[in-house]
């Protein structure tokens, strides 16, 4: 029986690279001259600190652009509420989402059942395992799910025959 796993996991090394490139651009841009704006990652949280709302939005735009250039989807990002920091600065946290939660997994399972009712799907904590007797069915499921509109980024790994 053939199977594959559906996961949602960002490459944290690429996220770090995007953060480093964003930091370098902040240091070199004229509109950030004298600014105390910074971006850093702690575990699955990216912390952005800026002088004002304008600079915060600029840092976020730079960061998103760097992620896209590095081949990462911005669907991994969950922007939290902006908050005021000390000395008139503005702070925003961005969570890097990993794993497939209950709601998206239900939608994915429904979509798979529409595509191929004979497949079996296991919901394993933070990912899904799809199994079928036919590897052609699994390849069709993968190609259809790549076009499926959902608010998380999906990756297909561990394809086994």
What does this structure look like?
By secondary structure, the chain is of the alpha+beta class. The chain has two domains: 2-8 and 100-160, Alpha-Beta Plaits, CATH 3.30.70; 12-96, Alpha-Beta Plaits (2-Layer Sandwich). The chain is 37% helix and 29% strand. It has four helices and nine strands. Strands 2, 3, 4, 5 and 6 form a five-stranded antiparallel sheet that branches. The chain has a four-stranded antiparallel sheet with strand order 7-8-1-9. A hairpin with a 5-residue loop joins strand 5 (83-84) and strand 6 (90-96). Helix 3 crosses helix 4. The longest helix is centred in the first third of the chain and has 17 residues, at 12-28.
Enumerate how many helices there are, as a single number. 4
For the record, what CATH class of the largest domain applies? Alpha Beta
Shape call: elongated
Number of domains: 2
- The total of beta strands comes to 9
Keywords: Nucleotide-binding
Pfam family, one: YajQ
GO cellular component, one term: cytosol
GO molecular function, one term: nucleotide binding
């Amino acid at each position: 029986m053939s199977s594959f796993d559906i996961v949602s996991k960002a490459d944290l090394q690429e996220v770090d690279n995007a953060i480093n490139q964003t930091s370098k651009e902040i240091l070199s841009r004229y509109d950030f001259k004298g600014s105390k704006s910074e971006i850093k990652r702690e575990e699955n949280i990216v912390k952005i600190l800026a002088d004002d709302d304008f600079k915060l939005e600029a840092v976020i735009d730079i960061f998103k652009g760097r992620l896209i250039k590095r081949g990462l989807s911005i669907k991994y990002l969950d922007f939290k509420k902006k908050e005021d920091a000390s000395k008139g600065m503005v702070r925003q946290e961005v969570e890097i989402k990993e794993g497939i939660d209950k709601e998206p997994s239900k939608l994915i399972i429904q979509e798979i059942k529409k595509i191929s009712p004979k497949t079996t799907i296991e919901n394993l904590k933070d990912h899904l395992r799809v199994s079928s007797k036919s590897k052609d069915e699994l390849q069709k499921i993968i190609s259809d799910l790549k076009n499926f509109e959902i608010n998380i980024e999906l990756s297909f790994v561990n394809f086994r025959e």
